[in-house]
Amino acid sequence: MRMLTPLVLALTANYLSLATVVQDFNHVERCKDSLYMGTPPRGIIETKLKKICQRYADKPRYVTLYDPHKRIPVYSAYTFKKTEGDRRVDYPWMYEPQLAEIDGNGNMLPFPNGYLHMKFEDSQAVLDDYSDVVLYERGHLNPDQHQSTPHDRAATYTMTNVVPEIREFNIGPWREYEERIRVRLNNFCRGTAYIVTGVTTRGNMIRRNNQDRVAIPEDVWSAYCCTDYDRNSPHNMRILFPSHAALAKNAKEGNSVHEMTVQELEIFLKNHMDVDQNLQIFYDNCISPSPLPLYLQHTI
């Protein structure tokens, strides 16, 4: 049996210790399964951002691009699971240990009772950041009602998957949109639906102890991709596949959700996010594979 050299052992140990905060989403087994064609959105300038493979109970559940300075996710990307849409609220809130230190087995962890969080509150939001804020709620980017198993649902309750959302927006237009997408994908997506949900910011912050703590999103956006869909669905539904997107203001008023093409959303984001002109949310724009052989495709 071939022995591993000390260098290989050290590299292996380092690789395993990076099981959650990763150099690339492809570095962790099955992490890229949350992304269409295993490919994250391109064109986002990531110099200060962290890629999180959101692990719960020793299994990757979805991925998040996280800004440790603004202490909010830029986006979370996940696969939609068919579900009845009921909400659960008895899961404990969790944090991501490896944003603060490289150790452990890569799983998100519940906040301990009476926790002393000084060692990780520099790198991420904590419960206290939301405790005295009346206007804002913890708004999920990957919502629990788009997941089906208890473990997948529990994994959405991490502070690295939430942003401060105006209460009226969170429980009103945005929740209605999430439910609309749940029903649409349940009924008309035949294969796997990939969703990316993110935010834009303008510099407004939640403050605690006279310090800027958590960035407040200006806009919330989302896009889905499902290339295997019901091609016999009604025309008004068929035109919403294989991909579609939405955009809304995180505000008390004027917060209605506007649905649009993914390309229209990308044009907006190029002017409101730190991205370059190559921004593309889904690989190859989520172009549906043709059901016809090549020599007949021109007849579609």
From TrEMBL:
Protein keywords: Signal
Domain annotation ENPP1-3/EXOG-like endonuclease/phosphodiesterase: ranges: 59-275
The keyword Signal belongs to this UniProt entry's keyword annotation: yes
Signal peptide bounds: 1-19
Transmembrane residue ranges: none
One Pfam family this sequence matches: Endonuclease_NS
Residue ranges annotated for the DNA/RNA non-specific endonuclease/pyrophosphatase/phosphodiesterase domain, each copy included: 58-275
Name the record gives this protein: Endonuclease domain-containing 1 protein-like
Protein's organism: Ameca splendens
Taxonomic lineage from the root: Eukaryota, Metazoa, Chordata, Craniata, Vertebrata
